[in-house]
Amino acid sequence: MLRSLSVLVLLAVAPLALADSDAPDDASIEHSVGGDRFAAGRAVSLGGTVGGDAFAVGGQVTVDGPVAGDAFLAGAHVAMGGAVERGLFAAGALVVVSGHVKHDAHLVGGTVEVTPAGRFAGTLRMAGRTLSMAGITDGNLQMTGRDVTVSGGVGGDAEISAAHIEIGPSARIAGKLRYRSDREPAIAAGAQIGGGLERLPGTYRPWTWGEGSHHGVDGFGRSTWLGGGFVFGVLLLLLAPGFLSGTSRIAATEWPLSLGVGMALLVAVPFVAVLLLITLIGIPVALLTIALYALLLLLGHIVAVVAVGDYALGRWWPARATRTGWRVLALLVALVALAVARRLPLVGGLVTLLVLITGVGALCVYVVRPKPPAAAA
After folding, report:
1. Distances in Å between the alpha carbon of 261 and those of 56, 267, 354?
2. Residue 318 per-residue DSSP state
3. Pairwise CA distance, residues 58 & 9, whole Å
4. pLDDT given at position 152
5. Residue 277 — pLDDT band, cuts 50, 70, 90?
6. Higher confidence at residue 282 or residue 186?
7. How many helices, marked H, and strands, marked E, lie in the chain?
8. What is the DSSP letter of 148?
9. Integer Cα distance of 124 and 206 in angstroms
10. DSSP-derived pairing of the beta strands 28-33 and 36-46
11. Close Cβ partners of 54 (under 8 Å, ≥ 6 residues apart)
């Protein structure tokens, strides 16, 4: 357990530590757990074969080698050129994919580009401000953005929600082009759409990623909170699955206790930190308390989201509730669901706050509660 949390903390603080140090521009930290590979840093490059899943976070993330499992990538600039045997999850300011993905792919960013070399065996989902799809997907294509261009091949339907939609002359869509926009799509001569066009009801909703020049996908929440929560959650699910199973069980079965403990900590810890700051001797302890409080909130958020996903799996798909891959998928769905709930008027903020408090409380109850002794061999 201690080793697992040490790896998590190392990867979490690696980009910040490298940014504040005199490390070279291409410095990075890598760690392997079984066949899975974890990497973080200013410039992360995975060029060799990854026997399991690949997790990479950094300023610039490049993957050129084959990945036997899933690939989870996040950074300012993400370039995926290798072959992924399972699914691809990539997020960044600029995401460029030119590799082969054997299952579904989820790409989120400011600018997301699939080059002509990109190949996808499953459904391709893209969300961003500027989207370009010049590759080939055997499944369906789903795109949500401001400016969208399709010049590749789609084996199923293409569903697009955007302000500007352009279908290039080399586009080949076997199914329908289903779109939501205030304008008609610009379809070039030579483009082939086998199933015709269908305009979807409703109006296009633009990117809302913060203010000014920052944009985001409405419904995905803020990218840092969503992406960071997903990366940390996946790491914990892989490195400490028993810990998250225990906290999920407490959050689900003892939620009144968890809510009460979390509420008490939410109020008491800042109050104690302020009291410590009043005295000169207590300042170092106060600063440490504040840092630990921030870590507690982060871990409590992860615990809460994983608990929501685990509860849903246990209720509707109990046979899959203990499988790591399905828990990761449930984590992603729960994160998106909470990001959407946060935007609901009046009740949205309250719901997400209660979920966070419950996660914090469940985490603390799990830590302080005595564990049963291990069975004798």
Report:
1. 35, 10, 12
2. G
3. 15
4. 96
5. low
6. 186
7. 7, 21
8. E
9. 20
10. antiparallel
11. 36, 37, 39, 46, 63, 67, 69, 70, 71, 72, 73
More reliable by pLDDT, 157 or 21:
157
The residue to which tokens 């046979």 are assigned: 319
Can you tell me whether residue 266 is helix, strand or coil?
A: helix
288-306 mean pLDDT: 78
Reduce the secondary structure of 163-205 to three states and give it as a string.
CEEEECCCCEECCCEEEECCCCCEECCCCEECCCEEECCCCCC
Band (pLDDT 50/70/90 cuts) for residue 278 is: low
Tell me the pLDDT tens digit for each residue of 25-62. 445 566 676 788 877 667 788 878 888 888 777 678 89
User: Do the Cβ atoms of 166 and 149 come closer than 8 Å?
Assistant: yes
Enumerate residues 6+ apart whose C-beta is below 8 A from 99.
63, 80, 81, 82, 83, 84, 117, 118, 119
Angle, alpha carbons 250-256-259 (nearest 5°): 85
Q: Model's pTM, two decimal places? A: 0.55
- Give me the residue spans of the domains in the chain: 2-199, 240-368
Helix (H) or strand (E) segment spanning residue 129? strand 124-133
What does the pLDDT look like over 218-248, one tens digit per residue?
A: 333 344 445 556 667 777 777 777 888 888 8
Whole-number Å distance between alpha carbons of 213 and 207 = 11
For residue 313, count other CB atoms closer than 10 A to its CB: 22
CA dihedral 361, 365, 366, 367 (to 10 degrees): 100
Does residue 153 sit in helix, strand or coil? strand
Quick one: 172 exposed, middle or buried, by C-beta within 10 A (0-12, 13-18, 19+)? middle
Whether the CB-CB separation of 311 and 298 falls below 8 Å is answered with no
* pLDDT, tens only, 64-87: 999 999 888 877 788 999 999 999
